[in-house]
Amino acid sequence: MAASALPSFQPDWPAQVHSSGPWRAQLNAYNQWANELFATAEIDALLSSRSHFFDQLLTQLWQAFGLDQTDLALVAIGGYGRGIVHPASDIDLLLLFHTPLNTEQEHSVSAFITFLWDLRIDLGHSVRSVADCMLQAAADITIATSLIENRHITGEATLTKALNLALTTEFPWQSRDFYQAKCEEQRQRHQKYHSSSYNLEPNIKLSPGGLRDIQTIHWIAKQHFKTRRDESLVEYNYITAEEFVELREYQSFLWRIRYALHEVAGKNENRLLFDYQPEIAQRLGFGGTDKRAVERMMKSYFQVVLKVGELNQMLLQFFEQAILGPVDIHEPEPLSDDFALNQHLIMVRNDHAFAKPEQLMRFFVFIAKDKRIKGIHSHSIRLLRNARANLTAPLSENAECRTLFRKLLAHPTGFGRAFALMHRHGIMACYLKAWANIVGQMQFDLFHAYTVDEHTYRLIRNLYRFTLPAHTDEFPLASDIVQQLERPELLFLAGIFHDIAKGRGGDHSELGAVDAYHFCIQHDYSEVDAELVAWLVKQHLLMSLTAQKRDIYDPEVIQAFAREVKTKQRLQLLYCLTVADIRATNSNLWNNWKASLLEELYRATEDTLQNDGESTLTLRQRIQENKQVALALLLSAGFDAIEVQQLWARFTADYFSRHTPEQISWHSQHLIHVKERQLPLILIGDENNQGTTEIFIYHLEENHLFANVAAVLDAQHLSIHDAKILNTRDGYVMDTFIVLERDSSPLYDQHRIEEVRQHLHDVLRKRRSPPRQQRGLSRRMKNFQVTTQLTFLPQKNERKTTFELVTLDRPGLIARVTRVFIQQQLNLMAAKITTVGEQAEDLFIVCNAQQKALTETEREALRDAIVKELDH
């Protein structure tokens, strides 16, 4: 429906003002009328209609409260001043006066405002003179901005004219100052959202590429050109008519989302929360309320905000050149017949520079070669956008483009600023069709914080950081490997393709491996190189899965991993890819515990590969070596060897194989002289220097100990990442927990450590009852469903059974699972706790009451009991 075809709403205003009820009824009737039109009406018509409705309502009330008999003016400012009102938007009003209000006027104004509050209108208001407005505007850029877009509603019109005259002739912010203030305001706003448009629950108003970025462009233009019309951008040649239409389309799309969001949330909400996404996707016509509809809507959203961000950058740069003027008068420095360096920006020297597709690739090769280039000149961004729109085939189909792309891949800085700008300006999507498919591709989970293309870009950025000697201390092993690679571009290619098949259906690792292989052959890489890159893509999850979800102290696990990896080259590249991948997935995922697990797996596998695929130490040899080193540490600390050997005689072989010499020494120092009346012994520290916190508990054996400890740690908001549950030969337990705070930091504060220790001590001594789970699922978690699944892993060992549990993560999960173990009369030997977004993917090693692996009957009973406990 065209904007002009929108029917008008005719309110039946009450004749008198006795109560807010009849007026509220009119407001409700309008909301229902507008809501019914949402599916067919143009969004700008709906927003203008709502603004007009409030104009009518306020005018009627202005008269009803006798304010039309005063010399006051009622003025709309801010969004309402622009004539744009969403269902739950605030209504910002300015009441202008010539002279200060008398008592009667103050009473009338107060009654008027109070009545609007009674109507439950989200109201912002101020009562000022024109002079007051200018003083406030001088002190606050936000007030100055809101006044630019004022609009007279009713009352003394000469006051509004006086305000606009003052804003035109006496505006306290010069164009230069206003521009710089709004740019700084935008920079700070973007920082709050980590300068990324790709948040899982974006703020459609304030996030980068959101509505505020569009408004910023218009505010600067209106102040600079002293105009009230958005079209002035076209009239003054700062934007083409086509770009203006494009910007309007993006704005309308974001308006429709915001309008629907307000309706669904029932309040002034700008965050596109998980709770609202399904219904909004349905209202906007993306399908039903299922996951696929949400992904389609969010993909469209991310693609829009990416383009808004590009237009925002281009136009602000145009404004900078016009308002601030050139920093110096030097002529651009020619780089070639087509390109030049303008201060720190690369620019084209003629408007036909991108006439041939290969010129686009040559442009970015220049960026890679010249460290002085920090960005792209605004006019060149425009030409880049136009060239991008005119392409009829992927750039990779052009032989010369392929040659230039290989040159870019091989350049030492090719994956620095050049690749970043190719990603930001959509050139990767133009080069590789498969990349275009992942632009804005959201994954509806809590594990991935970014769209697939943004995640991949961040992975590449992490790999590039490994190449820089200045950052070697951050990830020494990865940096050492990458900086010694003869051809690091093969690793970068694996990074580009590792997730490129997501969203297609099927196994993205296998599909991506096929894409990677064909790409390498197309770009004249050797068969060996192509197979290596394809293998890395296919197995890019193997190392993280093994390190986090398998028992890497088990020689069989290491040998199986080594058999898959086969060569040291593969191991090195897979390690670097894995570290970069985890760090690029979600800023909350990486921690020192994951780092230590990956490095342990790397070292153990490296030793195994050097020993022809066999572990360099047998289990017996590892136990013996751990004992020897731990004994040397204890002897150097003054302990008696005989006492140590007497203590260790009570321990099982599993204890010595699953702890480091440093841990064994630390435990033993405290265990040698501990008395039963002093139990439980609770040690809290970081003897392995892994940046984690280890909690060691030595106590008399009892059924509910592990469950009670897990309940305490959960109540203390600590996350368990690893647990070793071992018994001595004479009826004691020795449980080791690796824990972190919820922000992935270890326990540093001594007061906090003592608080945790005391809570554990009180519960284990029966002075306090174990904490009962009080917290339910978080708001985010309620939007996800994960079916509980148990997978029993192949195991040769006759003394234990290993299984993986996948279920919805929730508070108290570990305590609930261990209660099932008790009910089934099973002994827990070890646990590895992994949270993948909304999913818990935990590994447990158990045995039955006879210290044997579970029978098939016991497995099925365990599966049924856990599913019943967690899914019902």
TrEMBL record:
Its cofactor is Mg(2+). Gene3D superfamilies: Hypothetical protein af1432 (1.10.3210.10). Residues 1-334 are annotated as: Uridylyltransferase. This is Bifunctional uridylyltransferase/uridylyl-removing enzyme. The keyword Acyltransferase does not apply. SUPFAM superfamilies: ACT-like (SSF55021), HD-domain/PDEase-like (SSF109604), Nucleotidyltransferase (SSF81301), Nucleotidyltransferase substrate binding subunit/domain (SSF81593). The gene is glnD. Residues 452-574 form the HD domain. It catalyses: guanosine 3',5'-bis(diphosphate) + H2O = GDP + diphosphate + H(+); [protein-PII]-L-tyrosine + UTP = [protein-PII]-uridylyl-L-tyrosine + diphosphate; [protein-PII]-uridylyl-L-tyrosine + H2O = [protein-PII]-L-tyrosine + UMP + H(+). Belongs to the GlnD family. Its EC number is 2.7.7.59, 3.1.4.-. Keywords: Hydrolase, Magnesium, Multifunctional enzyme, Nucleotidyltransferase, Repeat, Transferase.
